[in-house]
């Protein structure tokens, strides 16, 4: 059945392509955050362990919302490690860094997702895609606030 939501097919595809990048960054950050939650050590263990759990729980909800928006636009959402690795801008951590380095990498990751969302925003805006623009605005707010709070721990 054809999709008739007031956006042309090419506009929907272009927005979905951008959202796929936001999804890949978000999912990669989710995995990294979960890794750090499991493996953090040191004097900040308790607070970071709990904080990272809050963050990955929020990200788990976010990736579902982003993927569902891609589907509502009539495209398939990427859903494999390979696809995410090709689309993400976030560097994978293969080791277990010290707690302060984990925090630094989390700041970097949240800022990356915010930048990617900001890059996609004009495409959604140009297409008159208010639901995607709203979703991107919400994601930018969450990631910018989280980056600020994490950055404050390093000062």
TrEMBL record:
Q: Which InterPro entries match?
A: DPS_DNA-bd (IPR002177), DPS_DNA-bd_CS (IPR023188), Ferritin-like (IPR012347), Ferritin-like_SF (IPR009078), Ferritin_DPS_dom (IPR008331)
Domain Ferritin/DPS residue range list: 17-155
Which terms in the Gene Ontology molecular function aspect does this entry carry?
Answer: ferric iron binding; oxidoreductase activity, acting on metal ions
User: What Pfam families does the annotation carry?
Assistant: Ferritin
Q: Which PROSITE patterns match?
A: DPS_1, DPS_2
Spell out the family assignment given in the record's similarity comment.
Answer: Belongs to the Dps family.
- Protein name in the entry: DNA starvation/stationary phase protection protein
């Amino acid at each position: 059945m054809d999709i008739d939501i007031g956006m042309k097919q090419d506009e929907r595809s272009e927005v979905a392509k951008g959202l796929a990048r936001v999804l890949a960054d978000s999912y990669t950050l989710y995995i990294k955050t979960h890794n750090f939650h499991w493996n953090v050590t040191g004097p900040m263990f308790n607070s970071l362990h709990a904080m990272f759990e809050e963050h990955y729980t929020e990200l788990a909800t976010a990736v579902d919302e982003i993927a569902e928006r891609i589907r509502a636009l009539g495209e398939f959402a990427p859903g494999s490690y390979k696809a995410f690795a090709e689309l993400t801008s976030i560097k994978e951590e293969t080791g277990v860094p010290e707690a302060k380095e984990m925090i630094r990498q989390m700041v970097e990751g949240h800022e990356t997702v915010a930048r990617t969302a900001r890059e996609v925003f004009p495409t959604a805006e140009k297409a008159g895609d208010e639901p995607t623009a709203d979703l991107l605005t919400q994601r930018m707010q969450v990631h910018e606030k989280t980056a600020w709070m994490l950055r404050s721990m390093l000062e």
